[in-house]
Amino acid sequence: MTAAEQRYTSLLDPLAFPPFLSCPDEHVYDHQRGSSPVQHWCFLGEIEEISGIGRLCLDVKDREGITVRIYFYLDRLSPSVREIHINPPRITYPKHANVPSHLVQKGYTIAVLYAQQHRWLAEASTGIRIEDGDMVQIFPCSLSELLSLGDRILQRVPQSKTAAELRTCGWCGEKAASLLCCSACGLAWYCNKGCQRIDWPGHKKDCKLTSQVGLLMKQHWSHVEPHFKFPLSTKP
Ligand SMILES: [Zn+2]
Ligand SMILES: [Zn+2]
């Protein structure tokens, strides 16, 4: 394994990708804001319900099965026109490039940087309050698909003879020691450029998702400054 591959952080890492109950309470975090946060972190949850007139509201489930309510308060940074449609009610999507309505779908996974446990006193409930759309990215796959993709990225086989038998051409199924690797995602193997070209229309979507998830895992989660934001920079 090369040094570059060792830098990948597991999506199950309790500090980098904490479930909701391990995210800091906002009052604790506020108190520490004068100093640097201890490290970067990112909450992951699968969208289960979408609602919200005036403000987008998502009910998401984290990997521990806890359902968390997320409210978007992007007015301050990205003012949006408040549309109210009572009958039928229409959802208001924030006008932010990271939260396009085609990605706000049940079964997709939302990533929230620096998510904190917020208490809504009126509702006597806790959840996540999002004030900055740059802190959000939505992945077009379920949380379990995201986690298994993360596993496959971690297990990416290094170039060695023993690993060769695990390699199969993504198009024709040929097994060989000297397959070409898709340079964009590093997870697809091909006999030659021909097989890669024929498989591309089918691989394109997986390739983009794998690259995005790989980028998330490749960040220096244990470094403190500067703060991350989405879309993530490809330069570490
Ligand atoms: Zn092939
Ligand atoms: Zn690829």
From TrEMBL:
Domain of life: Eukaryota
Molecular function, one GO term: zinc ion binding
Domain MYND-type: 169-207
Record flagged with keyword Nucleus: no
Keywords tagged on the record: Metal-binding, Zinc, Zinc-finger
UniProt xrefs under Gene3D superfamilies: 6.10.140.2220
Protein name from the UniProt record: MYND-type domain-containing protein
Organism: Piloderma croceum (strain F 1598)
